[in-house]
Design goal:
Layout lengths: L1 E5 L9 H15 L3 E7 L13 E9 L2 E8 L2 H10 L4 E4 L4 H12 L4 E4 L4 H7 L6 H12 L4 E4 L2 H9 L5 E3 L16 H6 L8 E5 L8 H14 L4 E5 L5 H7 L4 E4 L3 H10 L2 E4 L8 H8 L3 E5 L2 H6 L7 E3 L4 H12 L2 H15 L4 H22 L1 H7 L1
Parallel strand pairs: 1-2, 1-5, 2-3, 5-6, 6-7, 7-8, 9-10, 9-12, 10-11, 12-13, 13-14
Antiparallel strand pairs: 3-4
Helix pairs in contact: 1-15, 2-3, 4-5, 8-13, 11-14
C-alpha cells in the first residue's frame, strides 16, 4: 500500500500531532507501507525522515502565534504530485488550508480519504477570543469530515461527541507510548539537585505548550496552593509559548526549562513525582501517557487520554471537567502523601505500557483498507457490475 499523509505540522516541530504522525509513520514503514508526505516547508530546510516522496508547500505563521503554521497550495499542485506518485489512500491529519486543498484534489482523482481529528478547533475559538467563530468552525469541520470515508479520533468519548455533532463514520484510533524511552529508569539525581531538592522532596511537573488553551490560570493557582501546603516542593514547567513570561512572573519559584530535546524530556519526567495537567483542549494528550509511563502520579480532568487510561484513585487522579476546585484540591492533597503518589505512579506505568504503537499502527492499516474498499464499492464501474 502507498499512503500519503497531509499535515500542517511535522517533526521536528514540538507538538502532539507531529509526535503522533512521526511515530505512526515509523511503525507503518515496519509493516511494509510506502509513506509519502505533503506538508509546509519547514523553518530549517530538511526532508521528512520517513517519507519516500515529499511535497513541501508554502508556509504561513498564524498572526500573534508564530509557533503555529499553516500550509497553502492550490489543489492542482497536489493533483500533479499524486498523478506522479498516486497513493492508494490519503490521510488528512489537519483541516487547515492545506487539508482543504488536499481534500479537493483527492476527490478530483477519486482517491480514498481518511481524516484524523487531532485538534479541537472549536475549543481554540473560545480560548483566543473569537467564540463567535465557533459555530461556523463546527459547520466547516462537519462538512470537511463528512467528505471522507472515515474520521479517526483517539477516544470513544470524542467519537460520541462528534457523532452527536453530525459527523459520520467516526472510528477510534488510540495513541501509543514508547515504554523504554519514557521510563522511571531515566530518573536523574543530578537533575533533581539542579532543582534544589533531595531524593525525598516532591517535584510537581507540567509539560506542554504555554498558551491560553492549556488552562494555565488553573495551573498557576494549583501550583501556588500545592506550594503553600508543601513549601519544600519543587515546581518544574517544561515547554514554551506566548504565555510563558506571564506565568514566570506569577510563579517566580518555579523552574522554567523552555522546550527540551527528547532525551532530556524523558529525564525530566522520570525525575519528577507528580504530573499536574489542567488542560481541556486535547483530543488525546500524549504528555499524559508519557508521564504515566515515566511512573508519575497524574492529576488531570476526566477528559481525553486521562478519561481513557486513568481509573481515579488506582493509577492516577481525575476529576470532572467542570470541577476546577476539585482539581486543585486533588493536587494539594496528593502532594502531601508521598506513599500515595509513589503507588499511583507505579500502577500508572503498567497501564501506559498497554498502549502499543505496533498494535495501533496495525489498526490504522485496517482502517485504511476499509477506506479503499468503501471507495471501490462506490465507484461507477463497481455499481455497473453489480446492477
Amino acid at each position: 500500500m502507498r499512503l500519503c499523509i497531509v499535515s500542517e505540522t511535522w517533526s521536528p516541530e514540538i507538538n502532539g500531532v507531529a509526535h503522533t504522525l512521526n511515530r505512526l509513520c515509523r511503525e507503518l514503514l515496519l509493516l511494509g507501507i510506502t509513506v509519502d508526505v505533503i506538508r509546509p516547508a519547514p523553518r530549517q530546510p530538511g526532508s521528512a525522515a520517513c517519507a519516500t516522496q515529499e511535497l513541501q508547500v508554502k508556509r504561513f505563521a498564524l498572526p500573534n502565534y508564530t509557533d503555529v503554521q499553516v500550509g497553502f497550495a492550490r489543489p492542482g499542485k497536489l493533483q500533479r504530485f499524486w498523478q506522479q506518485y498516486r497513493p492508494d489512500v490519503v490521510y488528512l491529519a489537519t483541516q487547515g488550508p492545506l487539508g482543504w486543498a488536499a481534500r479537493q484534489a483527492a476527490q478530483r482523482l477519486d482517491l480514498p480519504l481518511v481524516a484524523g481529528w487531532h485538534t479541537n478547533f472549536d475549543h481554540y475559538c473560545q480560548d483566543y477570543g473569537v467564540a463567535w467563530l465557533s459555530k461556523a468552525t463546527r459547520r466547516y469541520l462537519r462538512y470537511f469530515h463528512n467528505g471522507c470515508a472515515l474520521t479517526l479520533v483517539p477516544t470513544q468519548q470524542q467519537a460520541v461527541a462528534l457523532r452527536q455533532d453530525g459527523i459520520k463514520d467516526v472510528q477510534v484510533l488510540s495513541r501509543g507510548i514508547d515504554g523504554e524511552r519514557f521510563s522511571p529508569a531515566h530518573r536523574d539525581l543530578a537533575l533533581r539537585q539542579q532543582w534544589g531538592v533531595s531524593e525525598h522532596q516532591p517535584v510537581a511537573l507540567y509539560v506542554g505548550r504555554l498558551a491560553p488553551e492549556k488552562n494555565l490560570s488553573l495551573l498557576q493557582e494549583t501550583l501556588q496552593a500545592m506550594r503553600s501546603a508543601r513549601p519544600d516542593m519543587a515546581q518544574v514547567i517544561v515547554g514554551d509559548g506566548p504565555a510563558r513570561s506571564q506565568l514566570q512572573k506569577a510563579l517566580p519559584e518555579a523552574h522554567f526549562t523552555g522546550f527540551v530535546d527528547k532525551h532530556s524530556l524523558a529525564r525530566h519526567y522520570a525525575s519528577a513525582d507528580m504530573f499536574v495537567f489542567p488542560s481541556l483542549s486535547e483530543t488525546w494528550g500524549n504528555v499524559v501517557t508519557e508521564a504515566m509511563a515515566s511512573g508519575l502520579a497524574v492529576v488531570a480532568f476526566r477528559h481525553a487520554a486521562s478519561a481513557a487510561l486513568i481509573h481515579s484513585g488506582h493509577n492516577g487522579i481525575t476529576v470532572a471537567t467542570d470541577d476546577a476546585l476539585g482539581f486543585q484540591h486533588a493536587a494539594v492533597t496528593l502532594c502531601q502523601h508521598p506513599a500515595d503518589y509513589a503507588r499511583l505512579g507505579r500502577v500508572a506505568r503498567l497501564r501506559a505500557l498497554e498502549q502499543s504503537w505496533t498494535g495501533i499502527a496495525e489498526q490504522f492499516l485496517r482502517y485504511l483498507h476499509h477506506a479503499q474498499e468503501a471507495r471501490h464499492a462506490s465507484s461507477p464501474a463497481c455499481r455497473i457490475r453489480s446492477s
